[in-house]
Amino acid sequence: MVMVMKTVTQRVGGQLLAGDGRYALRLDNHKPEKGAANLLYLRFAFVTQEMDELIFPAFILDDWGSEIKSLALYEWFHEFAVQFPRAEVFGRNMAGQETQRFLRELEPYSKLPCYAYPTPDTPLADGRLVEFILIPDETIQESIACKRPSKWKRPLRSAKARWQRVPTGASTFEYAPPIIK
Fold first, then answer.
1. I need a surface site. Which of 94, 112, 139, 140 has the fewest CB within 10 A?
2. Of 46, 25, 179, 16, whose CA–CA distance to 111 is shortest?
3. How many CB atoms lie within 10 A of CB 115?
């Protein structure tokens, strides 16, 4: 029996919007039920220190041989990657080929490139890079830049994307300048 290494995927409810060759995720629900409408599947990549490869993780093998799987591996990586440089991440590169790297080869402080997929089985190369995450807000009339919700868990809150609040039901997006403080 051949085991297929599947990359970690986060299910969300929303819509992928395109404009000027860029993609935005209108995030209607960051924790939808399995059978909910408008599901999208997000995969978050680790970045190598040379910035030459993205790795979509399947699991991390720590120094004692324990496997860290599912979305929990992003929190583990954030908390322990620097302390355990000999731990290894197993996953796939953008071409879908299996790869493995020591954590010391990854950039531990980098935001995570986020790719959106219509199904959990869509090939990695067919994903769309999410550059904007739009949060519907019924109290506003036009898009405004905002900070990422700190109460949300990783990997979503570590996505390498610009965050905006948009009017509820928005079906297009426009760039809003970042908040400067």
1. 139
2. 46
3. 22
Q: Please name every residue paired with 29 in a beta bridge, in sequence order, or none if there are none.
A: 13
Structure tokens at 66: 């324990």
Quickly list H helices, 27-178: 72-80
Structure tokens at 27: 């995030």
SS3 126: helix
Residue located via tokens 């400067």: 180
Per-residue pLDDT of 78-127, as tens digits, reads 999 999 999 999 999 999 999 999 999 999 999 999 999 999 999 999 99
pTM of the predicted model, to two decimals?
0.91
Sign of the four-CA dihedral 139, 142, 145, 151: positive
Q: How many CA atoms lie within 13 A of 163 on its CB side?
A: 14
Cα(145)–Cα(123) distance, integer angstroms = 32
> Is 176 within 8 Å of 146 (Cβ atoms)?
no
Dig out the tokens for 15 from the structure: 């819509």
Calculate the alpha carbon distances from 136 to 16, 62, 141 in Å.
13, 39, 11
Q: How far apart are CA 134 and CA 172, in angstroms?
A: 10
Place of tokens 């949060």: 135
Q: What's the pLDDT at 98?
A: 95
H runs (alpha helix) in 38-161: 72-80
